[in-house]
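Help! Submission page says 'invalid entity' but I think these are all valid:
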Amino acid sequence: MFILSVLVVSCKDKSSEPDKESVLLSAIHQEADIVTTELTIRKIAIYDSDKTEKISLRDPNTWKFGSRKCVVPVSINIKYGYDIRDIKLESIRIDDSSKIIHIKLPEAKVIDSGYNTDTESGNIVCISTGLRSAVGHEMIETISRKAYKEVLKKGEFKEIAEKDIRNNAKMIFDSLAKSLGYNGVEIE
Amino acid sequence: MVLKSNNLFSKIYVFQFITLSNMKHKKTILITGLTALIIIICVFVMQKINNDSEEITLEETADAIIEVMPTNDLYVSTAIIEDFTTAHQTEYHLGLIPEEHSCVQVLRQKVSHKIRMADIKYTMIEPKKVLVKLPEPLYNASTIHSSFVSDDEDYWYQNLSSTKNMKKKIEAQIKNRFDTKENRRKSKLYAMQSISHIINQLGYQVEFEDVVLFSPQTDNF
């Protein structure tokens, strides 16, 4: 009885909250990125199984009774800017007469991006009919993740925000130049 | 003779009765067996069909840019950290039979330290020398991957209204791992190197207030 109770207690200890060790996927990387523009994008992720699933008589995996539909709004945050390390001496030209610094900026890039995982349940619409399983948290996470990856992959925001990115970069380097006693910056 | 014939008839009757009973018994077994077979086939077919583990394809929709804001942040160090948390619940069928349920919420974040460029103070101490005072690095986290895994999606959909609290817990765990004193000191060092680079390109020497000396300690993970 004593041995049994010890075994039960030890099993209970093992099944209690496990040690949550963070998994570090990469070490710290040194960065030198100036973020000049922050974009907030709202993507409405729509999944309709009727439009994407095809039934094949040879494959029982495609036999489904009913359908699943889901609409998930995803808020995506993208930070755009420049890598300082790409700004070399030859990129900078100082006009001593006008005290204006001319900078040739490198290609702008996505410095940081992420999506909001706290979508309010009231904003999500999910329907499953027939014998299909309910649209649960797992499916909603998958849809949100796919929407985020698609926005980054398509990159439509780059063209739209290009002008704003250059203007914002000028503003930032302007303030740096003025603090060093110059009259401003011209972006080439 | 009559008695013998009676015995024979009774034997025949008994034989007929036994045979008929056996036949009825066999019929019952056959019907039960066939029913069981049909049920097994139906269960097998139901498991094969309505398989929702396939790749999800989203419809084409427009990306609506809600806001474009100027920012003035210098990102000096970054890492990708993934962490998880679990939840367990017991479901009682008919109030008596317990069934254990478990789920796992996983979150992967890109975390970084950033310096607000607007908070950097520049003071000219000599014609070509600048004294720079850096502010404290700020912690920044962006979620790049989130997933939820459970033993019973239907159960957790009905009994867990939102995964928000689980995600907040993971975010705090990740912050504790990255936003340490040692990592902040390291980030400040990286910021010094980045600012020096850009100001040197403009032809100035840089000196920093509250110089941070390099520590032989490694990353505090």
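Support: the input was valid. A stray whitespace character was the problem, and the output above is from the cleaned input. Chain A has four helices and eight strands.
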